[in-house]
Amino acid sequence: MNMDPEIRQLVQTIHDCPTQAVLVAAGAGTQALSDLLGVAGATRTLLEALIPYSEASFNEFLGQKPPQYVADETARLLAGRAFTRARWLAPGESRVVGLACTATIVTDRPKRGQHRAHIATWQPSRLICHRLHLYKGARDRAGEENVVSRTLLNALAQSCGIKHLVPNPFVTGEDLVVQVTDFEQLVSKLKRAEISYFGVFDHGMTVCDESAPKALLSGAFNPLHDGHLTLARVTAELLGQEVAFELSVNNADKPPLVTKIALERISQFAGRYQIFASNAPTFVEKSRLYPGTTFIVGYDTAVRILYPHYYGNNIKDLENALHEIEKQGCSFLVAGRTAADGHFYQVDDLAIPQRFQRLFKGIPSDLFRKDISSTELRRSGMKGSR
Fold first, then answer.
1. Bridge-partner residues for 216, per DSSP?
2. Where in the chain is the domain with CATH 3.40.50?
3. Beta strands of the chain (E only): which ranges?
4. How far apart are CA 280 and CA 189, in angstroms?
5. pLDDT on residue 378
6. Considering only 29-33, 67-71, 140-144, 378-382, which range has the smallest mean pLDDT?
7. CA gap 157, 151 in Å, rounded
8. Is the pLDDT of residue 373 over 70?
9. By three-state DSSP, how is residue 331 classified?
10. Listed residue (37, 127, 18) closest to 79, CA to CA
11. How is domain 195-380 classified at the CATH fold level?
């Protein structure tokens, strides 16, 4: 079948852009893949394409069974997983995108519900979701596939910064709703102190200054690795509640994270885990933002929390800080660490003032002992978690 000249031109323009994509399509959207492959230069654009058609394949890629297979939230989760996959396949590349479609269109049997498609693109700076409702009975399957695939190509083009899109043959009664989640704007607001913190859920929806969970695993996540993920899983089971991750754009020992780096750190959690970002470099400040929270930290971080140097070498100021953390209802769960001397250091090795002993609890070594260093991963050039 001959390709529409407008589609061919758009695909060629996409191929000429530096953006690379992982595409995931379920239910519809395969014509868009065929169009991308049908124009020379597809290897510059497509890192990978997946068609998870069976429930087992869909669930395995997503890492969970979604509440609904054809829904905005599911499209965002798919796009997040595709984005994580793209970052893994093209490490160090900032121009990658996760592109996903989940749809229900005409089949060989009648359907009770609406014919619709949910398409999402996930990039470091933003997440865009397109919700398309098709007028039932207006087209055959090929006609509906054409509309969905054109929408999918336009979504990819927009993620590349292309403004000239292909027209879509909508009929009366159909609508396309576009929702944008701007992560870059949130980081900018955070850096301007317009908000205290924000959270990004695994499905990409965000909250500001609310809904913080009561267990946070704090870190720099440079990069996020299996040690972090295993620690989160173990402590969630230990505490009997959800554990989210927490990143501060400010650090007591280092310059503040620039927006681009902050977005890259947050990007690592796309489609998989919940991440909160704040301006709070110290745990006293974190306790004010997240009262009643258990902070999960490694042994090295716990040492710094208790190091008088960070309190002007004033023991009284250290105790005042711990007292405020206690008043905020916060506490610490500490993971042990093997040091360069070969000794495995745990919470009992910490120099905790007597009256604050109950603020620090250790994670049993038989539950967690995974010595992975972000510094060593960076030095060796190894990838973090996927």
1. 244, 295
2. 195-380
3. 20-26, 46-50, 96-104, 115-122, 126-134, 175-182, 197-200, 206-208, 215-218, 244-248, 275-278, 294-298, 331-335, 337-338, 344-345, 360-362
4. 14
5. 44
6. 378-382
7. 10
8. no
9. strand
10. 127
11. Rossmann fold (3.40.50)
Asked whether the predicted pLDDT for residue 381 surpasses 80, the reply is: no
CA 347, distance to chain mean position in Å, is 31
d(CA 151, CA 360): 53
Both tokens of residue 332?
């610490």
**Residues 140, 142, 148, 153, Cα dihedral to 10°:** -160
Q: Is a pLDDT exceeding 50 seen at residue 255?
A: yes
pLDDT the model gives residue 351: 95
Q: Which residues of 331-366 are buried (b: 16+ CB within 10 A; e: fewer)?
A: bbbbbbbeeeeeeebbbebbebeeebeebbebbeee
275-278 and 294-298 strand pairing? unpaired
Determine the pLDDT at residue 210: 92
Residue 118's nearest CA partner among 107, 97, 102, 141 is 102
Helix (H, G, I), strand (E, B) or coil at 16: coil
Position 127, amino acid: L
**Which residue(s) pair with 179 in the sheet?**
129
pLDDT at 165 over 90: yes
- Residues spanned by CATH 3.90.950.20 within the chain? 5-182
114-163 pLDDT tens trace: 999 999 999 999 999 999 999 998 999 999 999 999 999 999 999 999 99
Helices (H) and strands (E) in the chain, counts: 13, 16
Burial 64-82 (b: 16+ CB within 10 A, else e): eebeebbbbbbbbbbbbbb
The rounded distance, in Å, linking the Cα atoms of 16 and 366 is 53
pLDDT of 173 > 60? The answer is yes
For the stretch 300-338, pLDDT in tens is: 999 999 999 888 889 999 999 999 999 999 999 999 999
Please state which architecture CATH assigns to domain 5-182.
Alpha-Beta Complex (3.90)
